[in-house]
From TrEMBL:
Domain (Alpha-D-phosphohexomutase alpha/beta/alpha) ranges: 11-133, 162-262, 272-376
Organism: Mycolicibacterium arabiense
Residue stretches spanning the membrane: none
This protein's name: Phosphomannomutase/phosphoglucomutase
Keywords: Isomerase, Magnesium, Metal-binding, Phosphoprotein
UniProt GO BP: carbohydrate metabolic process
Entries under InterPro entries matching the protein: A-D-PHexomutase_a/b/a-I, A-D-PHexomutase_a/b/a-I/II/III, A-D-PHexomutase_a/b/a-II, A-D-PHexomutase_a/b/a-III, A-D-PHexomutase_C, A-D-PHexomutase_C_sf, Alpha-D-phosphohexomutase_SF
CDD domains: PMM_PGM (cd03089)
Alpha-D-phosphohexomutase C-terminal domain segment(s): 381-452
Cofactor: Mg(2+)
Length: 468
């Protein structure tokens, strides 16, 4: 059946499918999406397009939605492999292992009322707006044709142990000193994957927090990017005397790190550390970083003999550059980490293993190790609600006339003020928000830039108050 274009386009977004269950997403809708996805990959005649692997997270709605999607796939004549409960990177692993397209049912860090689908082609290659989602959206709007041939089959396969074995094969922890590792799964899929991956490593004592799978998120939101959601882990690290703390988001594809003092570690510092380790085994390799990561990242990549390539924010851009350049690794400020050895896809768990290996091979505490990668102070992302983002950006740029060292427009506008000071302003694709990121050598310089830019935004928009 056909569907209203506006309703479909609100849910099928730039990178994935996501919306309120019962209001925007239901079983009939995802059945159509499953059928459209099957037709897309089948008609492309891509390798592995005879079957689709499906996984889902711990949300109450996930099993039934995944089942409806499977119905849509088999109706088009393709087979389905169900891996059941999974993290998103576990689904990517299955897509790579089986060399077939995949669908992961999750709304990541969004609240319990939401759900969605992350789609990929064989080998975990992303499906985004320009690489298939628009085609799927158009077909769902117009009505997905019924399958003409015999329906496909459905089989179950548990890949959790294989996933754990594969990740551990990529990072050697055999010589590591004993480590006490606190993990806050936030009642998300990290509670499913951490025991299978980290719990199987000799010398690691796992100190779990909120491992019970619960899509209502009774303890805190599964979004470690918000500092409020790290508070419990920080306390847990101190209470247990852990050497390190790890926090995963709802679908466990992102990993945030806390040191032994309970202090958060910048994802930029983690990016630099992992980049250095990967360059140690392939000198001269390319490493991708997005433009919001610290300038310390490209500096350290070059110092270690690598080639640094700068990207726009967003996994589709990173993954595209990973494939185009053959990069060995890529990192984002949002704690997404991409690996060539993981089909160019992101895995927070694999990044965590690299940090554990770096910590375990020396006696220094994590805080001392990560200090090697912290050269600048940063504001973190500050969001302003504005009515006219373009006018606000123009006012900010005019206020800095005569003081700008360089400027570029790769993603929003990035202004280099010289002497290690820079800021980026970019608009949100989905909300009336203007996003500010600032970096400088000192916290005082960061505060000065934030105050200056924020004042111009407020004066131009008449609002512009920072929002969470």
């Amino acid at each position: 059946m056909s569907r209203p274009a506006a309703a479909v386009q609100r849910v099928i977004k730039a990178y994935d499918v996501r919306g309120l269950v019962g209001e925007q997403i239901d079983e009939d809708f995802v059945r159509d999406v499953g059928g459209a996805f099957a037709r897309l990959v089948r008609d492309e005649q891509t390798p592995g397009a005879t079957q689709v692997v499906i996984g889902y997270d711990m949300r109450e709605s996930s099993p039934s939605l995944a089942a409806a999607f499977a119905d849509g796939v088999v109706a088009q004549g393709l087979d389905v492999v169900r891996i059941g409960l999974a993290s998103t990177d576990q689904l990517y692993f299955a897509s790579g292992l089986l060399d077939c397209p995949g669908a992961m049912f999750t709304a990541s860090h969004n609240p319990a009322a939401y759900n969605g689908i992350k789609l990929c082609r064989a080998g975990a290659k992303p499906v985004g707006k320009d690489t298939g989602l628009t085609t799927i959206s158009d077909e769902v709007i117009g009505g997905v044709p019924e399958g003409a041939g015999a329906p496909g089959s459905i089989e179950d396969r548990d890949v959790l142990a294989e996933y754990g074995d594969f990740l551990r094969s990529l990072v050697d922890l055999r010589a590591s000193r004993p480590l006490r590792v606190a993990v806050d799964a936030g009642n998300g899929m990290g509670g499913h994957t951490s025991p299978a991956v980290l719990g199987a490593i000799s010398g690691i004592t796992l100190l779990p927090l909120y491992f019970e799978l619960d899509g209502t998120f009774p303890n805190h939101e599964a979004n470690p990017l918000d500092p409020a959601n790290l508070v419990d882990l920080q306390k847990h690290v101190l209470d247990t005397g852990a050497d390190i703390g790890l926090a995963f988001d709802g679908d466990a594809d992102r990993c945030f790190v806390v040191d032994e003092r309970g202090m958060p570690v910048s994802p930029s510092a983690v990016t630099a550390l992992v980049a250095g380790r990967e360059l140690g085994r392939e000198i001269g390799a390319t490493v991708i970083h997005n433009l919001i990561t610290s300038r310390a990242v490209p500096e350290l990549i070059v110092e270690r003999g690598g080639t640094a390539v700068r990207s726009r924010v967003g996994h589709s851009y990173i993954k595209g550059l990973m494939a185009e350049t053959g990069a060995i690794f890529g990192g984002e400020h949002s704690a997404h980490y991409y690996f060539r050895d993981f089909w160019g896809a992101d895995s927070g768990m694999l990044a965590a293993l690299h940090v554990l290996a770096a910590l375990g091979e020396q006696e220094r505490p994590l805080s001392a190790i990560m200090a090697d990668y912290q050269r600048y102070e940063a504001s973190g992302e500050i969001n302003y609600t504005v009515s006219d983002a373009a006018a606000c950006v123009d006012a900010v740029l005019k206020s800095y006339e005569g003081h700008i060292h360089s400027i570029d427009h790769l993603d929003g506008v990035t202004v280099d003020l010289g002497d290690g000071r820079w800021f980026n302003l970019r608009t949100s694709n989905t909300e009336p928000l203007l996003r500010l990121n600032v970096e400088a050598r000192t916290a005082a310089e960061v505060d000065d830039i934030v105050d200056h830019v924020g004042t111009r935004i407020l004066a131009t928009s008449g609002s512009g108050e920072p929002v969470p």
